[in-house]
Amino acid sequence: MAPQHRPRSLKKSDLPSFLKPLKPTLFSESSAPPSSRYSQPLVQKIADISWSPTGSSIATCTSSNVRVWNSGRPNVKSSTEIRNAHPRDGGEWGRSGVSGDGVEKVAFSPRDEGVLASLGADGMVRLWDLRTPNKAIPVGDCKVPKQGGVLVWHPEGHQILVTVKSSNEVHQIDVRRLPTANSDPLQPARFTLESAPRTPDAPHTVYTNLAFSNSGRELFATTTNAGVQILDYPSLTHLHNLSAFPGETHCVEHSPSGAHVAAGSADSTISLWDTSTWLTPHTLSHSQQLMPIRSFGFSFDGAYMVAGSGDHLGTMGKTEGGGGSSGLHIYHVDSGDVVHTIETTNCPTHVAWHPSRYWIAYAGDPGGLRVVGIGSNVL
């Protein structure tokens, strides 16, 4: 067994020299090479990206399918495809020719490398067992009565929260592993998912995104009225409001170091709060970042951030690419400076840092998912 990777942080002055020689690696859904170096196969627009807890796998979802990649093997033959993961009208998942509903979100369990959750546009939450190579087995599901919007795991992995679009209604789903009929460790464990609708005891608004604090005792909710609500968990009692710039806030995250909470907004800026004072030391912005911030992420050490524009027009039937400026802008959190920009063809839509390396997965360029850093074993 290979030795476990130990994360090592880089200083602000050292990160550019590490990133500069790295080129994005394409995880193409076509096993055939493009007809020319200027062309790439057309693929459905990626709606979400999720790294597994160790970073050995990356999950993406498109208009109807989910694909799980081996992060060390970008060849499509080493991936697992879940066709029509959320079929319409009670159809059977996995079959070709079955009309599939849009897959809105995918997220690995923070505690189990082999369990992935997906959220369909119809509000269906489904768990998948991924331990068998090139095979996904459904091991539990639960339907939210209305159209789902956001899916997020509790840090302990025992609950999932799902929002209802255009409301502040939150469904709390208890995830419980059922005992298997025998002791075979390869036997997929079934789960029971029990959903309960919750309305937070907080000023009424529409939630656009959710994120737990690192401890799981607080919940951060971005809203349509230019702020972030901090809620106690599990009571969902309102604790505090974080004021952001005018306009909607679209994404929120607690840094891995615990030192900051960040929120991306419609005015193309990232608001940053110091969790020791709850003051805003500075905002993160770039003169070429012209689109709303709908996707972002902290590096594993909380020292850097990267942002994407998300997909405000939806994913159904669309291919990659969109408006806005190209480039992955890497921000140094403490200073607010842009320390490096990774060249891209289009404006990145979704971004996600590796959980323990300076690797960045992103969507938006032709051909599908790309990862910067694959093959660099130093960090």
From TrEMBL:
This is Anaphase-promoting complex subunit 4 WD40 domain-containing protein. Residues 1-39 are annotated as: Disordered. GO terms for biological process: mRNA export from nucleus. WD repeats lie at residues 103-138, 242-277. Residues 1-10 have a biased composition (Basic residues). Residues 28-39 have a biased composition (Low complexity). Transmembrane segments: none annotated. Keywords: Repeat, WD repeat. Belongs to the THOC3 family. GO terms for cellular component: THO complex part of transcription export complex. The keyword Repeat applies.
